């Protein structure tokens, strides 16, 4: 269990992780210029939740920390939709390199 701040009796740590893999097709324009067109975006999402409660914690404390977990899970439920919307904005985008 990590050290707690004054007034804390337990802790819920929600760790939201994301990894984006972006691929594209390059087209050489001349000896020093090219364009890349994004044609692949894969986003992997993960949520790790750890709840620490001391031995003998009251049911109230346990339920409180479980509430934090449920809030994190509620946000995570729609994270794939948000990630998909963001990825879609980049599909087909061209950049000079």
Task: Describe what you observe in this structure.
The protein is of the alpha+beta class and 97 residues long. Helices cover 32% and strands 41% of the residues. The chain has helices at 59-77, 79-90, and strands spanning 11-28, 34-52, 94-96. A 3-stranded antiparallel sheet has the order 1-2-3. It starts with 10 loop residues before the first strand and ends with a strand. The model has no long low-confidence stretch (mean pLDDT 95).
Features:
alpha+beta; 97 residues; elongated; three-stranded antiparallel sheet; 41% strand
In short:
The protein is of the alpha+beta class. It contains two helices and three strands; from the N terminus they run ββααβ. Helices cover 32% and strands 41% of the residues.
By oligomeric state, this entry counts as single chain
Helix content: 25-40%
Question: What characterizes the major β-sheet?
Answer: 3 strands, antiparallel
- The geometry reads as elongated
Fold blueprint:
Layout: E1 11-28, E2 34-52, H1 59-77, H2 79-90, E3 94-96
Antiparallel strand pairs: 1-2, 2-3
């Amino acid at each position: 269990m990590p050290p707690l701040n004054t007034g804390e009796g337990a802790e819920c740590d929600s760790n939201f992780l994301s990894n984006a893999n972006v691929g594209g097709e390059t087209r050489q324009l001349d000896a020093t210029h090219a364009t890349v067109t994004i044609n692949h975006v894969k986003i992997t999402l993960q949520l790790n939740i750890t709840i620490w409660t001391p031995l003998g914690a009251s049911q109230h404390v346990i339920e409180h920390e479980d509430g934090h977990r449920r809030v994190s899970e509620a946000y995570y439920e729609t994270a794939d939709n948000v990630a998909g919307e963001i990825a879609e904005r980049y599909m087909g985008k061209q950049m000079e390199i």
